[in-house]
Amino acid sequence: MPVNVVCWKRAICLEFMEKADVLEYYDQTVNSPSGSFYIPAVLRVPHLLQVIKRRRIKSNLSRKNILYRDNYTCQYCSSHENLTIDHVLSAARGGQWKWENLVTACAKCNSKKGQKTLEEANMKLINIPKAPKDYDILAIPLTSAAIKMLKMRKGTPEEWRQYLSQPSSEP
Fold first, then answer.
1. Which residue range or ranges hold the HNH nuclease domain (predicted)?
2. What is the spatial distance between Cα 6 and Cα 114, in angstroms, rounded to a whole number?
3. Domains contained in the chain, CATH given
4. pTM score, two decimals?
């Protein structure tokens, strides 16, 4: 499951600090005073490093993390199309940018609700929004759209292709 892209310097650091296993190398090498090294092309990150990343993600309230928490699903109608972020209590009514007040909503439901309360709009949430716990989010995988873009991009390294050929199932 592809999770992230890092620069070659970071990849070499992760390899030498033994925080990642190298699955593929590029043919190119880099030279240093201590020797010549092949550049890692594909890394596998062990569980421990993902735990550290998990804590960072939890504290990072973002559109991407809200979509992931809500399984890329409108919390009003279960649609997966035209997703936006909705304030349960609108900002105009004092609603804040907090985990507990933000949900994934399709554009149609978000527009229908507008600045109304759930009761005024006669709408119900499928799930009550809450901040994720550390164990709720392992890592946010690249979406199939991101993988498709990487595959179509001119110059996508051949070493990546077998890892991009099976798009991760979007949560």
1. 61-111
2. 39
3. 1-45 (no CATH), 60-135 (1.10.30)
4. 0.49
Euclidean distance between CA atoms 10 and 65, whole angstroms = 24
Cβ-based neighbours of 86, under 8 Å, separated by 6 or more: 75, 102, 103, 104, 105, 109, 110, 113
Mean pLDDT value of segment 4-11: 80
Residue appearing with tokens 């979509």? 67
Non-local (6+) Cβ contacts of 64 within 8 A are 140
What does the chain look like in DSSP terms, one character per residue?
-------HHHHHHHHHTTSSEEEEEEEEEEEETTEEEEEEEEEE--HHHHHHHHHHHHH---HHHHHHHTTT--TTT---SSEEEEESS-GGGT--SSGGGEEEEEHHHHHHHTTS-HHHHT---SS---PPPGGG-S--PPPHHHHHHHHHSTT--HHHHHHHSSPPPP-
- Residue 82 tokens, joined: 């035209």
Strand partners, 87: 102
Q: What is the pLDDT of residues 120-138, one digit of tens each?
A: 999 999 999 998 775 454 4
Q: Which of 37, 59, 46 is CA-nearest to residue 19?
A: 46
Residue partners of 21: CB distance under 8 A and separation at least 6? 43, 44, 46
